[in-house]
Design goal:
By secondary structure, this protein is of the alpha/beta class. The chain has two domains: 95 residues, no CATH class; 117 residues, Up-down Bundle (Zinc Finger, Delta Prime, domain 3). It is built from ten helices and five strands. A five-stranded parallel beta sheet has the order 2-3-4-1-5. Helix 3 links the parallel strand 3 and strand 4. Helix 4 packs across helix 6, helix 5 packs across helix 6 and helix 9 runs antiparallel to helix 10. The protein starts with a strand and ends with a helix.
């Protein structure tokens, strides 16, 4: 059965997907172009559900390719287009994503905002990270790993980087390659310098809200695109 995920903003990373969607089955992230090209179509008997993460889908998009709604796919749609699927209502499951404010944030929430020029730093998320030492340190560790992955990909193949970092090649590598094309080496080097400075400040002067805030604002100016 096809699932339609109603959301105002595309869910493009697995962390957000896991937080917002309660699905126990294995889910594979694929691009819409790959879905259209047929590279994934022979895999219909695969046990994993395919999630199209990079495009809102309309009923016309699927009807034009004679898509069978009995297949195990998850498509993201806008609420306004849901009525167009009324004719196949028996073959679809509708999933709604709540737009309510978060009770708490995760390191990848702040990281995604930092890289995205269109996302601004809200007062809520700045306060959350700047005033909670453990959360802020987790964010520094997470961001450092993301930057290290990008830095290594400048000169190395994915498989070699994954072996070095002891991790699987999955969506985070696709994300790293997207960022790699937008971030130059100089800005990346400056980001590592800033990371080192804030860690030294915390070790020498203790956890400080204002230092943390300046770091977050500064690192966003360096990395956003």
């Amino acid at each position: 059965m096809t699932k339609l995920l109603i959301t105002d903003k595309l869910i493009t990373n697995k962390q957000d997907f896991v937080k917002l969607i309660n699905i126990s089955e294995s889910v594979e992230f694929i691009k819409y172009d790959d879905f259209l090209s047929g590279t994934t179509l022979p895999l219909f008997e695969d046990s994993s559900i395919k999630f199209i993460y990079d495009k809102f889908i309309s009923f016309k998009d699927l009807s034009d390719i004679n898509y069978k709604f009995s297949l195990e796919y998850i498509f993201q749609i806008k609420k306004s287009s849901l009525s167009k699927f009324s004719g196949v209502s028996m073959d679809i499951e509708v999933i709604k994503v709540s737009k309510s404010n978060k009770d708490h944030f995760f390191p990848w929430d702040l990281s995604n905002i930092i890289f995205n020029q269109k996302d601004s730093l809200s007062n809520d998320i700045v306060i959350e990270f700047c005033e909670k030492e453990m959360l802020f340190r987790q964010f520094l560790s997470y961001l450092n790993k993301e930057l290290l992955r990008i830095n290594l990909l400048f000169d190395n193949e994915e498989k070699n980087v994954s072996l070095l970092l002891d991790e699987k090649i999955d969506f985070k590598y696709e994300l790293a390659n997207q960022r790699l094309r937008k971030i130059n080496r100089e800005k990346l080097d400056k980001s590592f310098v800033q990371l080192n400075k804030i860690e030294i400040l915390m070790n020498e002067s203790g956890f400080n809200h204002e230092n943390n805030k300046r770091f977050i604002v500064g690192i966003k100016k360096l990395l956003e695109f």
